[in-house]
Amino acid sequence: MSSDTIPETMQAVVQNTSAREYRQTSPIFSGTTHPEMKASVQEVKVPQLDDNDVLVRVKFAAQNPTDWKHSANMSPPGAILGCDFSGTVVKLGRNLKNPNIQLGDQVAGCVHGGLFKDKGSYAQYLRAESDLIFKVPESINMEQAATFGVAWVTTCQAMISSQHKPFPPEKAAEGDWYVIYGASSSVGLFAVSLGKAMGYRIMAICSPHSYDLVRSYGADEVLDYHEGDPGVGEAIKRISGGGVINGFDTISEGASFKIILGGFKENAGGQLNVILPAPQETYEIRKDVKVVSTLMYTLFGKAFNITPTAYKPNVVAEVEGDRDFGVEINKHTPELITKYGIKPNPVRIRGTLHDVTAGWEDMKTGKVSGVKLVYKIA
Ligand SMILES: NC(=O)c1ccc[n+]([C@@H]2O[C@H](COP(=O)([O-])OP(=O)(O)OC[C@H]3O[C@@H](n4cnc5c(N)ncnc54)[C@H](OP(=O)(O)O)[C@@H]3O)[C@@H](O)[C@H]2O)c1
C-alpha cells in the first residue's frame, strides 16, 4: 500500500569504491582511518520492502561519526551511507510488527547504514522496520526528530539496558551521581538528559566552552577533561564525597578511560560504560570497576559482518534481547520526549545530500562541538 507516486530511482550518498582493505585487527572504530572518504551522490534504486518494512520519504538526515568511519574503513561499493533520519511514511510492508504505523505518519529513528545497498538515510527514500522507528511528537520539529537516532539509542543501551535498569526509567536514589565523560558530544547530551530524567545528579566532563550548553541539558557540576588524570578523578571524588559508581564514557578514546575511572569509589561495585572498543589495559586500571562496552548495531537484532571489504569476515553476533530493547526504545521515545523531558541535540543544518561528505570532514577534523549536523533531504 502506498500514499503517492514513488519513483523507481532516487538520489543517495553511496560508497563508490571499496573502503580500503581492512588491515587493522583492532580497534575497529579507532581514529586510525583511511585519509579519504569514498562516497558521492548517485542515482540508485528506491529500496524494496520486506514484510515488516515501511518506506520513508526522508526529510532530514543527521550525521554521526560512524558515517565517515564506515566510508573510510568499512563500506563496500554500492552501500548507502547514513543512519539517522526523519520523514514521512509513504508505503507499508505486507505484515508490519507495529500496526500503529500508517501512511502519512511523521516518523524518525535510525537504520543500519553504510553496509547495505538498500539501507541508509542519506537518501531520498529509506526502508526501516516498522517497530524500530517512532512517531514524532508535536513538541519537536522534524530536524530535531532526526537527532534521535544512533546517539539516542546508544545512550539508552548504555545507561538502561546494559545496567539492567527499568525502561522507561525509574527514579534513582536521591543524591546519586552519574558521571558523563564527553558530555557535550551528541551521545553525551542525550546521556545528561536521560540521567537527569532518571533522577541522578549529573557531573558533566567537557571543555569549558561547552559548560553552559551541558548545564542547559541538566548538568549539576561541570569539569574540564583537559585537567587530565589524576585531577579530574580527584575532583569527581571530592564533589561526590568519595567517588561514584555510575559512569558513561561517551568518547572512549585516548586518556578518557583513565580520567573517568579515577573518579570511581573504591570497591563499591561501580560500572563504567564505554562505546568504542577499549584497549586491554583499560580493564586493568581499576579491577573493582566493571567496564562494559556496547555497540548500537546489535539493537537491529541481526548478526553482521562489520568489515565486508576485508579478506577475513569480522562478524558481530546477534545479542539476545537487544532487538526487543530496540523496539522498547522506539515505543517509549515519544513519551520520553514529552513527559520525561529528553531534549534533542542542538541542530545545525549543514546543507543537502551534496554537502554530506564535506560535513564528514568537519567531524573528522574535530570541528563539530555541541551540535548535530543535519542535512535537508526534501
Ligand atoms: N558503540 C556505539 O554503538 C556508538 C554509538 C554512537 C557513537 N559511538 C562513538 O562515540 C563517539 C562519540 O560520538 P558522538 O556522535 O557523540 O560524537 P560527536 O558529537 O561528534 O562528538 C563531538 C564532541 O566530542 C567532544 N570531545 C572530543 N574529544 C574529546 C575528549 N578527548 N574528551 C572529551 N570530549 C571530547 C567535543 O567536546 P568539547 O568541544 O566540549 O571539547 C565535542 O563536543 C564517536 O567515536 C562514535 O563513533 C559509538
In short, what is this structure?
With 378 residues, the protein is an alpha/beta fold. It is built from ten helices and 17 strands.
Write the layout of secondary structure elements.
Layout: E1 9-15, E2 39-45, E3 53-62, H1 65-74, E4 84-92, E5 106-110, E6 125-129, E7 133-135, H2 142-145, H3 150-159, E8 177-181, H4 186-197, E9 201-206, H5 211-216, E10 221-224, H6 231-240, E11 246-249, H7 256-261, E12 270-274, H8 282-285, E13 289-293, E14 304-305, E15 315-316, H9 322-338, E16 347-351, H10 356-364, E17 372-376
Parallel strand pairs: 8-9, 8-11, 9-10, 11-12, 12-13, 16-17
Antiparallel strand pairs: 1-2, 3-4, 3-6, 3-17, 4-5, 5-7, 14-15
Helix pairs in contact: 3-4
This protein binds NADP nicotinamide-adenine-dinucleotide phosphate (NAP).
NADP nicotinamide-adenine-dinucleotide phosphate (NAP) binds next to α1, α3 and α4.
Walk me through the structure:
GO terms for molecular function: oxidoreductase activity, acting on NAD(P)H. The protein has 378 residues and is of the alpha/beta class. The chain has two domains: 9-148 and 308-376, Alpha-Beta Complex (Quinone Oxidoreductase, Chain A, domain 1); 153-294, Rossmann fold (3-Layer(aba) Sandwich). The protein has ten helices and 17 strands. Strands 3, 4, 5, 6, 7, 16 and 17 form a seven-stranded mixed β-sheet that branches. Strands 10-9-8-11-12-13 form a six-stranded parallel β-sheet, with helices on both faces. The protein has a two-stranded antiparallel sheet with strand order 1-2. NADP nicotinamide-adenine-dinucleotide phosphate binds at residues 29, 64-66, 150-151, 154, 182, 184-188, 206-207, 210, 225, 250-251, 254, 256, 275-276, 294-296, 363, 368-370.
